[in-house]
Hints:
seven-stranded antiparallel beta sheet
Amino acid sequence: MSSEKRLHPVAMLVGAIRTLRRWVSGLVFPGVVLLVSQGFSLWTVTLFLLGLLVVAALAALWGFLSWRATTYTVTGNSFRLRQGVFQKNERTIPLEHVQSVDIVQGIIQRAFGVVEVRIETAGGGASEPDASLAALDRDAARTLRREIEGSRRESSEETTGPTILRRLSTRDLLLAGATSGQIGVAFSVLAIGFQFLDNFFPEDFVRRLVETLAPNWLMVVLILVPAGLLLAWLLAIAGTVLAYSGFTLSREGDFLYIKRGLLERREATIPLSRIQAVRISEGLLRQPFGLASLRVESAGYGEDAGVSTTLFPLLPRKEVEELLAGAAPEFAGAPAIEPLPRRSLRRYVFRATFLYLIFAFAAALVSYLVFQSALGLFGLFLIPPAAAYGWLCYRDAGWAFEEDRLIVRHRSLGRKTAIAPRLHLQSRGMVSSPFQRRVRLATFLAEVASGSGGSVLRVKDLDRGAAETLVGDLGPGVSIEGA
């Protein structure tokens, strides 16, 4: 039985700062009201600063008491964490339920050369870890990780340290940001920021600005829109740099280790036994350059959900199989994808163009009846691009089943390929609507455990006989003759 251990003394400072964050949100507004209402006299400012000192002292005392009350140990087949100043709380986690042991190094931890250890179980929430040790030195963190992971290691295994499989270079990091497709998210952040500025500036200032720019609105649009898109693109690159700087994928035994982050450094653990599927994503901006990213779907424990994690953010598509062979050989291999039958093409094109046809018809009708104009017919120009997109979805869709591995490929905006061993499938089956039955087609469905409780692998409109054969080869399934 291991003796109980304490956190590094830096945990007092971390605890005090976290306490201050919680208290400040409730104290800042009353303090500002006091300063404004009483005037910025020497007495008022002194009282305000004295109050801040008292709050800081109480937070420091609470940090010390929390550190003194927190102990942890690994005993038998469980991890035990005791904490609580007034109300004692003891958490016991069976080691077999541990999903990952992640090491995070925030700005404070980096300043003192310590790390935070977060222990995630399969049934834990996505926002908070099941157990968190705010500050440990690196040796203590490595020892704790090995003690927890030891329950899943072979006793005869000699550990020589993780083998680095691949690092993300600075060039690829910037390229990943430039092609991430997150410009829409960044543009939304900019819109919220401009809304804040609109509320911040006086109404008269905003009105005069609009009156000044209104006569030259076309030139303003031609300048502001590209500038906004450029700024959003740069923000997307910056976000990728912050998240994936220093990205390193390593393997030791049956565990994968991921290190990443610029300001906050993270070290995540992925047990190979928990990986249910690998997804290869070739984004709209990446596929023309032969680039892809990798994600893994990791199972939970029992009926609990698992997680979805980036295995590698950017690499050439032709090097994916080599990386998988070293990281997760069970998922390596690139069999030829079975294409869909020619009669499926009409359904893919129809699905892609149906909404645009309705929109174009409605726009043309309103334009003619209300404005006596034929401008609404310009909506018809949306039909050819939509039909081309439907053709791309048809061309990229397909499946393969080889060496007990199911490979499913489809397109949303980018092309996505999912790889799942047969034994990891939670369910498999096929759905055939009356319209599909008329042309001897069906939709194949399979499910693996994932962060949302289940991730579906789907192929629409494959040959019905091929779908029945695939369901039979994969094991017991279900056939639904639905509408």
